[in-house]
Fold this protein.
Amino acid sequence: MTLPSHPGQVDTLLAAVAARMAELRPSEQKVAALVLDDPIGALDHNMAGLADAAGVSEPTVMRFCSAIGFDGFRSFKIALAQAVAVGLPIAHSGLDRDDSPAQLGEKIFNHSIASLDRARRRLDPAALDRAVDLLADASSLVFVGFGASGIIAQDAQQKFPLFGVPCDAPADFHQQFIAVSMSTPRTVTVAISHTGHTAETVRIAAAAREAGGRVVTITGDDGPLSSYADVDIRLSTFEDTDMFTPTVSRLAGLVVVDVLATAVALRSSEAHLRRVRAMKDALARMRDVEQPPGEGLA
Amino acid sequence: MTLPSHPGQVDTLLAAVAARMAELRPSEQKVAALVLDDPIGALDHNMAGLADAAGVSEPTVMRFCSAIGFDGFRSFKIALAQAVAVGLPIAHSGLDRDDSPAQLGEKIFNHSIASLDRARRRLDPAALDRAVDLLADASSLVFVGFGASGIIAQDAQQKFPLFGVPCDAPADFHQQFIAVSMSTPRTVTVAISHTGHTAETVRIAAAAREAGGRVVTITGDDGPLSSYADVDIRLSTFEDTDMFTPTVSRLAGLVVVDVLATAVALRSSEAHLRRVRAMKDALARMRDVEQPPGEGLA
DNA sequence: CCGAACGTGTAGGAATACTACATATCCGAC
DNA sequence: GTCGGATATGTAGTATTCCTACACGTTCGG
């Protein structure tokens, strides 16, 4: 992962600022408060303007930048620009009951993007590597998950042609149990649980191991599920701070499945890839109302 | 939508640069090429450095910035910083057969984020408004879609408690037809198709209208589906340039469903929201292996 | 081959970021 | 209570970076 990363940048810039708020000098805190309160507005200011808006002097702004780990105002400003570009997580701008749908859209999109951004930064390349090794060598795959994680499993199953081996995602707990209990050493079960605690998912992973299969887990937090994993892919998204905050973890999960499927596909034979391509073309023709040559029926 | 937007910024900055490439002067093109080739590296340079790297003089860099619509090097640089922060769409950095899984992860995450970013910018607030009005007034909901769009429908159904009314998402075409054919004027069918051409989805939308129900469509492109819509939510993501490029449209679709569900939920009664909250708490306790008080069973 | 228009670099000036230093303020100790 | 030290903050000056006016090619039509 080669994103520009700055010293002291815990995760997002604003989180870093908030975290160091306490150890800042009073005047620097004024600057920090201003930045946290209106990061986008802060972008419009140069050093003098920001100093003025915060009611402090320019060197104080400078010291603020150093304090949170940048080597100058310039680099701080581009980091700030990047932070607001990916979007402010809802933690920084809560949902409000009288937000318009458009405002909600803005906030939720921002939150989703920020969440994916976080997952991207925290993703462990080595785990990804090992997972792909396992999957590419598998003779069959089983994806399991409940709730939002079940959606990810469903999605993975749709990518079956890319994986190139039989690929199942039973929704029913019993059928999941049956499927993983028939595991061979080359059966890989991908168990997905955002919490890492979901009881049923844990039991499925345990059963898969017991039957001699391999297990890849996709989790958001430490939990019992990880202990059954040959490879644990950890997705660090945001906490569900309030009940309205949508479950953004599934987005990162879906992207990880994309990555796994694509990586495995790129390892398969040219012949296989040709068949996939032919299938995709045929599917597009079959699906659409408007056929390229004739008239559509709509 | 209040994102910082700059003149001439077609969509992403790099797209704008590429688009204007032709009308640039030769020396300016050298700068453009450098920026397109290694945007992240370009960020490390100041004006002099970039001029040097491109083998031109500083004013040329300056003129380049003006030519693509910025009022100076500074504002160009923060725009560039933002462009690379959301991630470079795969169009700018194709998938390669010998990319490592980690590299693929980086690229696919970038592509997904860039895609959501694009959807965010292009989203029509008015359409969102009208869709929420319809949904909030509905007595029952039906979500339909096939393939990746089917995943979105499944996901929407999971948000049933937020919508507060019966909420169905049949996977089977016939059952979809049955469901929408029973539409009343307060039944809202949400028909999802990335292409906007999917024959079955179009027929379902038509049947819903015919039965007197309302129809919200979520589409990526112009197509017959939109013509059956009371409200059409248009999601502008990226084309599927090559067969490996994962279908990123579903991500934007999922987020839109989040927005709709959240917006509708925020309009419902306090009593209803209390019940949802209680349900969520109970679900969390039920689901997890490790109960807060006692010992877990894992 | 001449002249004009365009493209490009040179050099100097304005704005902005950064730093050394001095003053004010706060706190503990005597 | 006041004195000393340390810390916090602003003032003023310096260096860097960006921007602009101008002049020198270079190319093309006549």
